[in-house]
UniProtKB/TrEMBL annotation:
Source taxonomy: Bacteria, Bacillati, Actinomycetota, Actinomycetes, Propionibacteriales
Binding site for Mn(2+): 158, 160, 229
Protein name listed in UniProt: 1-deoxy-D-xylulose 5-phosphate reductoisomerase
Gene that produces this protein: dxr
GO biological process, one term: isopentenyl diphosphate biosynthetic process, methylerythritol 4-phosphate pathway involved in terpenoid biosynthetic process
Domain DXP reductoisomerase C-terminal as annotated: residue spans: 270-390
UniProt KW keywords: Isomerase, Isoprene biosynthesis, Magnesium, Manganese, Metal-binding, NADP, Oxidoreductase
Organism: Tessaracoccus flavescens
Length: 400
């Protein structure tokens, strides 16, 4: 029986994680759930169904409403007062970090954005296995995060990085030549910059192969997601940034590949379904039987690969240069992006402005002397995160 804390339980990864656990109550027990408070009905239903001991809620003002919803949910099921015990509530911006330090086997961090950093660090400090969906915490924390982890303590949930972990079992570390990161290309694959000037948030949300949360879906459309994933891969598997190459694979069936020094390439393939990487992350190094459907070889299928159009989508190379600068630069890349994505979704800037703002923030940050890897601290990362958001907001205003 593995005990689990799930942070971000009401999101896309969170709900799919509970789907995996729902039919396997003999293998997993949910000890804690965490969310921000944006979907209290769903959180209440999850609490009643999984009966965690502790719940972390980032917005304290939502606590009363949650309690009312819990009683209503229990009532709906015809339960008496004795059938259900209210969980302990942790409230406020540090609640998820406190919950991450619980005594459990696995913390699955599925919070979105930089808010996942402190929970990631708290999990590692406690010595608990970290099933990591929240790539932003690894990217912005960089060596701070990797040096806090013992070997194997971080297990990737991200589909590409789960694919790397699976393929890397085919050879020794010194036999690896390159990591080949696949990208769907997003909804705007094949478009020109001219085409992209007028695309809307709804257009950007129409991902061709995956149903995901808002931020990661917009990030897939700009290819910022692939930029973050390039940095994530280099950090997780200790590979040089130039040894991670990206190929566009619109079908999202080959989730990524490892090229070995004899010329072999080992790929991990399965239909796009996050329940597979979530399942293997919860049971790593073992596989979770029947986590998802395999490929169907009884019907014709075509898998294609093409190079990335880096002129139209500069986000990957911007990420690579932020990774080479190291230190606080990736935190600025991510923060500027999070602020620009919000502005784009609110209709305040156009699509192309997202990567233009990231680029401008990065240039300014590097010119004003960023904190390098050797001197990196949590405070420096959080300060760079704040600065990146504020500077991006100013650049948004200047364009309005
Ligand atoms: N979705 C996917 O298929 C994939 C996602 N990922 C990564 O997984 C992470 C989650 O993505 P996804 O599930 O799509 O995102 P969603 O937006 O769907 O869900 C985000 C979750 O995080 C919670 N949350 C947001 N802010 C805070 C906060 N400050 N404190 C505590 N909880 C918070 C939300 O709570 P509430 O609902 O209450 O607001 C929600 O439960 C991201 O880092 C993403 O890049 C990686 C690979 C695939
Ligand atoms: C499911 C998953 O892991 C996402 O990160 C996915 O990879 C996004 O697709 P893109 O390849 O379009 O960024
Ligand atoms: Mn991914």
């Amino acid at each position: 029986m593995r005990t689990i804390v799930l942070l971000g339980s009401t999101g896309s990864i969170g709900t799919q994680t509970l789907d995996v656990i729902r039919d396997r109550r003999d293998q997993f027990r949910v000890v804690g759930l965490g969310a921000s408070g944006g979907n209290l009905e769903l959180l209440a239903a999850q609490i009643v169904e999984f009966q965690p001991e502790t719940v972390a809620l980032a917005r304290p003002a939502a606590a009363n409403q949650l309690q009312g919803l819990l009683y209503a949910e229990a009532d709906k099921r015809g339960w008496n007062a004795g059938d259900f015990r209210l969980p302990k509530l942790l409230l406020g911006p540090d609640a998820a970090t406190e919950l991450a330090a619980a005594d459990v086997d696995v913390v699955l961090n599925a919070i979105t954005g930089a808010a996942g950093l402190l929970p990631t660090l708290a999990t590692l400090a406690k010595g608990t296995t970290l099933a990591l969906a929240n790539k932003e915490s690894l990217v912005i924390g960089g060596r701070l995060v990797t040096s806090a982890a013992r070997p194997g303590q971080i297990v990737a949930v991200d589909s590409e990085h789960s694919a790397f972990a699976q393929a890397l079992r085919s050879g020794r570390a010194d036999e690896v030549r390159r990591l080949v990161l696949t990208a769907s290309g997003g909804p705007f694959r094949g478009r020109t910059r001219e085409d992209l000037a007028a695309v809307t948030p709804d257009d950007a949300m129409a991902h061709p192969t995956w149903a995901m949360g808002r931020v990661i879906t917009i990030n897939s459309s700009t290819l910022v997601n692939k930029g973050l994933e390039l940095l994530e891969a280099a950090l997780l598997y200790d590979v040089a940034l130039d040894d991670v190459v990206v190929t566009v694979h619109p079908q999202s069936i080959v989730h990524s590949m490892v090229e070995f020094h004899d010329g072999s390439t080992i790929a991990q393939a399965s239909p796009p379904d996050m329940r597979l990487p979530i399942g293997i992350a919860l049971t790593w190094p073992d596989r979770l039987a029947d986590a998802a459907r395999p490929c169907d070889w009884s019907t014709p299928a075509t898998w294609t690969f093409e190079p990335v159009d880096n002129d139209t989508f500069p986000a990957i190379e911007l990420a690579r240069s932020s990774g080479k600068a190291g230190g606080t630069a990736p935190a600025v890349y991510n923060a500027a992006n999070e602020a620009a994505v919000d502005a784009f979704c609110e209709g305040r800037i156009g699509f192309l402005a997202i990567t233009e703002i990231i680029s401008a923030c990065l240039d300014e940050h590097l010119a004003s002397g960023h904190v390098a890897d050797d001197n990196l601290t949590v405070e420096a990362v959080l300060a760079a995160d704040r600065w990146g958001r504020e500077r991006a907001a100013e650049l948004v205003e200047a364009r309005a």
